[in-house]
Amino acid sequence: MISAALVSSSLSVLFFSLFVFFLSHIYCFSIEKKNRDSGRQLVNILLILLTLFATLHFLDTIVDYEEFAVDWRDEYKFWLISNELSRLPSISDIFKESYSNWIYGDLPGYAFYIGTIGHIADLYFDGNNLLLQFLGSVLWSALASVVIYKIYLLYFNKKESFNNVLTFSTLSVVFAYSFVFLRDILIVFFYALSFYIIIKKFTLIGLVKLIVIAFLTWQIRFEHGLFIFAFIGFYLYVRFKHYKLMLPITISVLLFVFLYLFYDMFFIAINTIERYQDFSTVSALEVDDSIGKYIFMVPSPFKELLMIINSQLQPFPSWFSLSNSTNIFQVATNILPIIYSLFWFVVIFSLIKYTLFFKSYKSLSIPLKLISLIVLLFVFVISIGSGTARRIMCVYPFIYLIYCFFTKNINSKKITINTTRQAIMSYVALVSLYFILKAFL
pTM score, two decimals? Predict the structure, then answer.
């Protein structure tokens, strides 16, 4: 934290990093006492790594600010929004401006959040700062790791949960988007909370929490907030499934209320997905050696299947960003896609093998099977729209939970090791195929 403050020459960075540290540890009190120390250790490890990478990302933006300050880059857009809102007289003014005529599109809640951080830095410290805003993402990653740890404790012992969550939190794509100026990590946190609620026993408080989470997520990205209603539907189904008369009535009432309240917004979400799909199609077709170019030429439904598979391979080739790095700090952060793409390929390859050849899905409880179907539906919808990993990764903690669950139930290190080897060999084969196609097509 001191190093980050010295690098940025900012008191606001120092005090906000302290705030992140203490708030994360306070949140650890939500973990039951016997597992709390491991939770704190997990948070400390992540904060060390994330603060380091946030600092490297900050140095990258300072060294090559012209490359950062381009209109199409989301981070730069959010940086401009935070500066604009931070100059307003009060937090209430920031709130009003964030929600004034929806001038910030589908992210008024996120605009209010980053504007408030910048305003407090302007008012009490030495002003808004890019590293300060990067740490604003780090906070939610630390909080999300606590929630994910609590989820895994429901199925694994303390040591297994710690190792699984630490592996996921450091090697998956979630880590790479935990220190950048984007809203996706906030959505990961709220989805993790949703998973934690729906896999536990139904309570009225839990239902209220899900509704609040749906509303808050809606303020960050509308489409992700809307999908949480699928979790609410599942939560109510589990509660009323034994009441043969009550269940259809409840579902009918919920559908009526949902369509009445969100009819227009539902079609806005569909239009957004279609717009992203059109943009993705045009972008893919413009790149001569793009795999996506060939996928979009395949007829349906094979095209959609390939789009889902492709979304789980992203980025591919994983070294593309690294090969275009312009400074040493960018090199450090652009190594991450090579790590998380291979890691996630191993996870998905193993899940497919365990499902098809070992019928591991039979070991899942009915609620976990139903949640898995909801997650698959989510991956399908997002993949055919914008199959970027950062828009899908909010369900990755659950997917990795199923992977860990299957691995544990197979109870054979030999099978696990062999499957991992096969996955790595398959990935190498895909890379080789890519180079062959690039050379001859």
Answer: 0.90
